Amino acid sequence: MDKVRVRFLPAGEVVEGDVGATILDLAREAGVSISSVCGGDGICGGCRVIIQKGEVEASPTSLLTRDEIRRGYALACQTRVRGDAEVLIPLEARSEGAQILLDDDAQRFRALLPVDEEGVSFRHHPLVSKVALKVPPPSLEDNLGDQERLLREVRRQTDGPQIQLGLKVLQGLPELLRRADWEVTATLALRGGVRELVQVEPGDRRRNFGVAVDVGTSTVVAHLVDLASSRTVDAEACYNAQASFGEEVTRRIIHAERGGLQELHDAIAGDLNRLVSALISRNAVELKDVTAVVCAGNTAMQHFVLGLDPARLRKGPYVPVTTTPPPVRAAEVGVKINPRGLLYTVPSIGGWVGGDITAGILATGLHRSEQLTMLVDIGTNGEIVLGNREWMLACSTSAGPAFEGSSVRCGVRAGQGAIERVEITSQGHVRLEVIGEGKPKGVCGSGLIDLLAELAEAGLIDRSGQLKPGSSPRVRDRDGLLEFVIVVGDRAAGGEDIVITQADIENLLRAKAAVYAGADILLSSVGLEFADVDRLLVAGGFGNYLDREKAVLLGLLPDIALERIRFVGNTAIMGAKLSLLSAEALEEAHRASRGVTYFDLISYPDYYDDFMSAKFIPHTEEGRFPSVASRLKEAV
Amino acid sequence: MDKVRVRFLPAGEVVEGDVGATILDLAREAGVSISSVCGGDGICGGCRVIIQKGEVEASPTSLLTRDEIRRGYALACQTRVRGDAEVLIPLEARSEGAQILLDDDAQRFRALLPVDEEGVSFRHHPLVSKVALKVPPPSLEDNLGDQERLLREVRRQTDGPQIQLGLKVLQGLPELLRRADWEVTATLALRGGVRELVQVEPGDRRRNFGVAVDVGTSTVVAHLVDLASSRTVDAEACYNAQASFGEEVTRRIIHAERGGLQELHDAIAGDLNRLVSALISRNAVELKDVTAVVCAGNTAMQHFVLGLDPARLRKGPYVPVTTTPPPVRAAEVGVKINPRGLLYTVPSIGGWVGGDITAGILATGLHRSEQLTMLVDIGTNGEIVLGNREWMLACSTSAGPAFEGSSVRCGVRAGQGAIERVEITSQGHVRLEVIGEGKPKGVCGSGLIDLLAELAEAGLIDRSGQLKPGSSPRVRDRDGLLEFVIVVGDRAAGGEDIVITQADIENLLRAKAAVYAGADILLSSVGLEFADVDRLLVAGGFGNYLDREKAVLLGLLPDIALERIRFVGNTAIMGAKLSLLSAEALEEAHRASRGVTYFDLISYPDYYDDFMSAKFIPHTEEGRFPSVASRLKEAV
C-alpha cells in the first residue's frame, strides 16, 4: 500500500502511514493527542483539525460550518489522507495527552481542605514504611538464621501483623547483611492483613516516598508525599491520555470491549509514569525511594489501571470486576516506582460510584459527621453522597465533563491560561481572571459557572439559556448558530476568538441540571429536602475556587444559606493521600465504602422530569430559589 | 580444539567433547550419573569406571590396585580422554542420578508408622484446599463486584483467615465466572497467616493432590497424597542427582561456593520434577491438580531446593539463610506442579538439624510425649533428638552415608536388588534376603548392620572390626587389603563378586560409633543415661526393617530392653505428609522446632574419646553391653 507522510503542527511530529488512514489514527501513531469525545465515530466534533497542506478525503459532516471548511477545518476521525499532508491541531482540539502541566498549575490541584479541620485525623502509619536496623551479628551462642535474625530485629522495633517475605528478598539476604555489616533498612508494606518485607537495603536508607493519585477520566493528578514526615513535596497533573480513545468513560469501555483494554491500560499507566517521573526528577528523589502508589479513581479508571475488563460496568446490572482491588506490585501493572513497591486502590462503592468518592468521604469525614452532609463531586460525572455517621446514600449523575472544560468549545481544564473568573459589568464589558501569565486559552469550570450566571444576570440569555440576539454586540450569529464572544482573537492565546456557543450553553445547562436533579432526588428518596442539609460540600478539579453565589444563581447548587456551602477542592487526591499515610485511613475507607447504599437514578421514575425542570435558570420552580428570583427579575 | 566421542556403557549414551576433558565431566554432559563422594577431587575413589576402548591419560592414584588398573579401571575424575573412547560404568559407580526406582521398591520407602498410633493426630485441614461453589449470579438488587461475590461465597462455605488474591486471578475472573455459568471451584492456599485464592476453575474440579517429599542428601522420596481424602496414592523415590557434585553435603556446599549453586538447585529441582511426573502419570493425575508440595530435608537440602546460598552452614557460627522458609510459588523454584501451586518447607531446627528432624518429631509425637524419648535418624548424617513434652535437645553426628549404602563399596540404597538381611550360619554359609527379584546388586543399610553383627558373632572379625585372615574361605587378601566375599560374581547382578572390604568395615564402624557416641553425650549432657530412655525410636530410609538385636550387638544402639526400641521408618516423609494434610500440624512443627535446643557435639571436649571407644564392637566398655558380651565371648 502507498505510504504518506503527515506532519502535525504546531509541534512538528511526523508520521508515515498508509494512504487512506484517518488523521486521528495517524495522530495516535505519532503520539499526538487529539481530543475525541465520541472515540472516532464522527459524532462529537471534538477532533477538529486544520489541514494546512495536502490532499484529504472527508465524509460529509454537519459539525463544521462552511466557513470552517473553507478555512481548512476537518474532523480528524472522518478525514482520510490521500497524499503527504500537514495538519495543524488547534488549541481547542489539543487534548495534550499526557503533557504535564507546569508546576504552578499543578499546585492549583492541591487539595484545599486541611486534614484535621473536620476532625478527620489518623495516626501516621504509612502503608509502606522503612525501618533502619542494627542487627546483632551471629555468634555460636546466637546463631539464628539470617531471616529469623532480621525479623527478630524488625519485631523489636515495630508493631504490626505477621511478616511475609518473598524468595527474591530471602535469596539476597545473606550477602546483603554481611556486605552492609549488619546495618540495613527494611521496607515493610501492609498487604491484606499481613506485612510484606518488600526489600532490604544496605545502610540507613529511610528516604521513603509515596504517590497519591486522583485518576480522573479527564485529568490525572499526582502528589508526591514524604512518607516519613507526611509532607506533600510536590504536585503534578496531566490530562488522561485515554482521551484519544473517547472522552466519555462509556466510549472507553466500548473501546476495551473491542480489544483495546491493553491500549487503555497502557495509556493510563504511561500517564502515571510520566507524573511520577516529573515529580521525582524535580525533587531529586530516586525512583527506588518511591515505594507506594495509592490510586483513587472512578470504578472504570480503577479497572483500566489494573487491566481489569470493564465491559460489565456498562450494562445492567453494572457489575465491576471488583470494588476492593487488592494491593498489587506496581511493576505488575506497568507502573514504574521501586520495582518491589506496591500500588493500592481506594475501594469503590459500586460500578458508577468509585474510589474517588470513597476518598472524598474519607477526606471530608462525611462518614463520621453528626450533621447531615451532602458531598457533590463535579468531575466528568457528578457524583453525590448524602448522609452522616449513621447512613450514607450515593448516586451518579451523567453530568458529562462540561465543567471540567470538555464538550464545551471554549472549555479548558483549570490550568495555565484558563479563564477562572468572569464578570460582565453593567456597561457590558467582560472582566476576566486568568490562571498564570499570558493570554487566555479558554474557560475552565469555575469560569464557566461565572459566565453562565453573569450572562443570565445581565439578561443576555433567557431562563432557558437561549442567547438573545441583539442583547449585546458580543452576541453574534455564525452560520445560524448564536454565540457570545468572551475574548477576541488578537487577545487570545490561539489567535481565534474565544466564544461560548448556544450548543455549549446547552451542554452546561444539562450538566448543572443533572447534578441538581440528582441531589434533589437523593434527598427526596429519604424524605428530606435541601433545607435539611447542614453542610453542602462541593468537590472537584474545575478550578481553585467556586463562586457559591453564582453557582446558586445558575441553579447548579440549591438556594440554601451560603455559609452552609463549602468548596472543598480535590477530595479524591486528599483521600488517596490520607490512605497512603495511614493504614487506618484506608481501613476506614473500606468500612465507609461498605456503608454506602447506591441509589440508581435511572430507575427513579421522575428523574427525567426533574432533570428537565432543572435545565432552567435557576429552575422551572422559582419557589425553590427565592434569593435568585428577584436578582434575575431585575435583569430580564 | 580437537573433539572426541565417548560412549558410556552399559546404556550407550554418546557424548562429543574436547580432547583433555575428564570422563566425569563428559559423563555429566551426557547426563550419565557417576557416583562421586569427593566431588571430583580424586580423593574418594567413588567414580571408578572401566575404560574399554580408547586412549586416556590418568593421574597416578593409590585408590586403584595394579590388578584393577590392568583390568581397565580408572577414576573418572582423574582421567582425561585423548581420543574416542568407550567407558563402562560398573554397577558400584553408578549413582543412577535421578533414575526412578521401580514402584515396588519405592513402596518400601513408605513410612511405617501409622499417623495416630502415638496419639499424633491432626484435623484434616490441607495447606491447599479446593471448594466447589455455586455463586448466585448478579442482579440489580445484588450487584456486588465479581471478586466480592466470589469471596462472599467462599466465606460462606469455609472458615479461615483473611483471603488474598493476585492480579492474574482477578483479571481472569469476570470471563471465567460467566463462562462457567457461576459454578466454579476455588483453590485456597494457607500462606503466612492469610489464605491466598490461588486459582479459580470452571465447574466442580475438586480433585486436589499434594506431594510430600523427603529431600535426603542421598535419596529423595516423594509421596502423592489425595488432599481431599488424605489417602497416600503412591510413592516414588530416586537418588539425589546432586551426588555427581559430591556425596557429602559439605562437598556440595563447596561446589555452591564455587558458583555451582544454580547447578545444585537445578539438580534437585529436576529430581522433584521427575518424581512428580512419575507419580502423576502412573496414577492418571493431571499436573494442574497437584497444588502443593511440602519438603522436609536437612537444612542444606532446603537451601538447595530454594536456591539459597548455603555457604555459611559450613563455617562457624553455622548460620542458615533461614530455618523457616516461607511458602513460595513452586514454579518460582522450578518445580512443576500447578503453575500457581505452592511449595512449603518443614522448618529446620538449625544449620545441622534440619526439617527432616522436625518432621520426625512431628511424626513420632516426641514433642507431645510424657515419656523420655530418643529419636535417632540414620540418614547421611545421624541426627538425634532427646526429650519429651517439656524439653528437647538435638545434635547431629557426622556419621556419613555408610548405612545409606554410600562410601561402602558393596553398599546400595534400599531398593530392587539390595541385600537387606544377612545371616552367617554356623557352617559358615551366608544366607541373604534380597529386595525384589533377580540377582543381588549390593547390600543396603539393614543388610550391612546384619552383616557386621554376623561377622562379629561368627568370629570373622575381631572387636576392632579387623577381618581375621584364615577364619573363613570367604576372607581373602586382595592387593594387601582383606575383604569378605558376600556373593560370588556369577551369582551377582554385576557379574563381579560382592565383597565387604576392611576399609568398608571401618567406614561402617565410624558411622555406628558417631551415632552411639552422639546419643550417649546428648544424654550425659543432661545427666541421664540410656537406661532412662523410655522409648528409642530409630528412623531412616536404610531398609524396611531393623534387626534390633543385631544393631545392639554391633553397638549401634544401646543395650536396653528391645521392646523399648522401635524402628519407625522414614519419619521425614511422614512429617511432611502430616504438614501437607493439616495446617495445624505444620504450625505445630514450627512450635516444636523452636522448642528444640541444639547441642553442638564438636564443642564437647570428650566427644573424640567417646567416639573412639564406640568404634569397638560393641564398645570398649563391655559393661555397657551386658547382653552382648556373653554372645560375642562364645564366638571368639
Structure description:
Two copies of one chain form a homodimer. With 636 residues, chain A is α/β, with parallel strands linked by helices. The first copy, chain A, has five domains: 3-93, Roll (Ubiquitin-like (UB roll)); 103-115 and 207-345, Domain of unknown function (DUF4445) (Nucleotidyltransferase, domain 5, 2-Layer Sandwich), CATH 3.30.420.480; 128-202, Ubiquitin-like (UB roll) (Roll); 374-400 and 509-573 and 594-635, Nucleotidyltransferase, domain 5 (2-Layer Sandwich); 402-502, no CATH class. Chain A is built from 15 helices and 29 strands. In chain A, helix 6 packs across helix 7, helix 8 packs across helix 12 (571-581) and helix 10 (502-525) packs across helix 14 (607-614). In chain A, 55% of the residues are buried. In chain A, strand 19 (382-387) and strand 20 form a beta hairpin. Residues 95-119 of chain A have low confidence and may be disordered. In chain A, the strands form seven sheets. In chain A, strands 14-13-12-15-17-16 form a six-stranded mixed β-sheet, with helices on both faces. A six-stranded mixed β-sheet of chain A has the order 28-27-18-19-20-29. A five-stranded mixed β-sheet of chain A has the order 2-1-7-3-5. The first copy, chain A, is globular. The longest helix of chain A has 34 residues, at 249-282. Chains A and B meet through helix 4, strand 9 and helix 5 of A and helix 4, strand 9 and helix 5 of B.
